[in-house]
Every structure is written in C-alpha cells, then in structure tokens.
Amino acid sequence: MTLLSIQDLTVALPPGRAARPILDRVSITVEDGETVGLVGESGSGKSVTSRAALGLFPDGATTTGTIKVADQTVLDSAVAYAMAKASLRQMRGATAAMVFQDPRSSINPLYRVGDFLTEAMRTHGALTRQEADSRAAELLESVGITDPGGALRRWPHEFSGGMLQRVVIAAALAADPRLLLADEPTTALDVSTQAEVIAILTRLRREHGMGMLFVTHDLDLAGAICDRVYVLYAGQVMETQPTQGLFSAPRHPYTAALLGSRPHLDGPAIRLDAISGRPLGLDQPVSGCPFAPRCERVTPDCEEDRVPLTPHDGAEVACLRPQEVSR
Ligand SMILES: Nc1ncnc2c1ncn2[C@@H]1O[C@H](COP(=O)(O)OP(=O)(O)O)[C@@H](O)[C@H]1O
Ligand SMILES: [Mg+2]
After folding, report:
1. Burial class (CB within 10 angstroms; exposed 0-12, middle 13-18, buried 19+) of 326
2. CA of 208 to the centre of ligand 1 (A)
3. pLDDT one-digit tens code per residue, 106-128
C-alpha cells in the first residue's frame, strides 16, 4: 500500500513575497515498509515537502496538487478539498508522525519527560495513567534509554541532544504510526550520536513495519539507509531512482555533480569538484531547468520550458539529455 502520495504539489507564496514557487509540481511516494530519501541543499524545499504531508504549509501560501497519507486525503486541489484541522490533528501521530532536526523544539521544557510521552499517548488512545506510564517506559527502553523509570521523572534540560532526540522518537512511535517523517533528525547531533540515532531509527522502522521519508542534505547518509532517493533542487524533483542506481548511474547533471563533490574517503584525496555557482533563491524567477545556470552541459533549450520528470533507464529524471550524464 502507498503510505504517502504527493502528486504535482505546488506551494507558492503570494507574488511580491517570491519570484518562484517554493515547490513546483513535486511528486513523491512512499510505499509500505520503504525508506525513501529526500535530499537537496538547504532551501531546496525538503522541509516544506515533508510538513505538507501533515497538512502544514507556510502562512499565506497557495497550494495545488494532491496529498494522500495511507487512505486519507490531506489535499486535493482539483475538488478544492483540504482536510479539516481536527482530522489533521488526529492523523498526526496516529497515522503519520514527524521527528524534526532540533529535539528541543518538539518538547515543552516545562513538562517532565514522562508527561510529554504520556500526553502523546493519551490524546490518541484511552489509556489509564498507569498503563500510559508503563507503555512510556517500554518506549524509552526501545530507543535504548537505560533506567526508563528514572528518565520519565526527569526534565528535558537534564538530557543531552542525542538522548532527547531518542525521547522524541519514542513519542513519535507512541501511537504506532504507519509513516514516519524524519526531517534531518540527526543534523544537530555530534557524529557518534548521529550514528546511534540512525541505527535506532532504522531498527524501529523495521520492527514497526513503518514507511519512512528520510529528509537530509547528506547524500551519503541517504545512500546508507534509503531504498530509493529523490533529489530536490529549487523546489523541483530533479531525479529519483533506487539508491544503488542513483549512486552508480546518476542521470541528472545535478545528481552527478553532488556525487562528484563528495570527499572520497577510500582512495587518495582528490580535488573537491564543488558545484560552482549558488543555489537559486526564492527571489529568482525560473524558466526552464532551475539547475541550468550551474550546469556544465547547459544548452539554450534547457532554459526555455520547464523540464518534466521523465522515465529513463530505471530512473525518472528532469533533464533533456540524461543519456549524456555519467559519473
Ligand atoms: N513558512 C515559510 N514562510 C515563507 N517562506 C518559507 C517558509 N518555509 C520555508 N520557506 C522558504 O521556502 C524555501 C524552502 O524551505 P525549506 O523547505 O525549509 O528548505 P530545506 O528544508 O530544503 O532547507 C526556502 O527558500 C525558505 O526560505
Ligand atoms: Mg529543512
């Protein structure tokens, strides 16, 4: 079953606040049990995309397209439907849950960790206090917190960032969601803590049989844990492929450039082929391919019309000449 289906989603601020849409006809799916990566540079629209799955949009933005989470429709602009606030609240947590970059922004510092966890449970199910407490302790144990009983009585400020992110993950799982949206969940953590939190997330995804949309600016991290990856640039999907194909045979010049700009760990240090030029701001209008101004292979036709995502050799790619691209 398809757990997340975003089709042709356009999110645009009113004219005067931006020269191009934040998202331009973005389509993304996550199937049951699948881990799907959404990668792109800062400002490419990753967070706006993942929040859209929960019906959260920037203030004043207009939206077109369709968004479905499991069997529930969140948005269907063709019939002017948007899910009501109460239903969205019900869906958040129960069907789809989200983990953000900074755990401290998700937790009220004035609540004990136990209250934070049991609140999430009590809004979604009819548990007694005692049942909720023991379920909360179980959840903390499942994210590797030793002495869960003690942890329940402590305050958020007594936890490190990594430990608090585990608490947030435990809370996200409280109502057994089918879809986990993880928006740079380890970006704010130090490297060794990052690896632990990633290991916990991938194990829990498997144990709970969830689907996961994993948002990151780190292509290697996406490659390590995702089955399939979407590459976003200036609010458009440039390419999507199963992970292996994306790394071995990227079809979009942007993907190839990203792969070429990575430091090579296994081999002599090679010059970093950082992509020249800057990402496109919202104040810059787009005609044609948004990557064209930075693309080594650009030709005049690239800047004429929007380049749609088209199947090519196992990939879907928004490039006029994907056959010319190789690593
Ligand atoms: N609430 C908002 N109001 C106005 N602009 C926003 C809002 N949220 C995001 N944006 C803009 O949309 C673009 C994409 O943002 P975002 O999805 O946060 O990027 P990413 O997560 O890939 O770094 C950025 O230019 C950002 O400034
Ligand atoms: Mg973001």
Report:
1. exposed
2. 31
3. 899 999 999 999 987 776 667 88
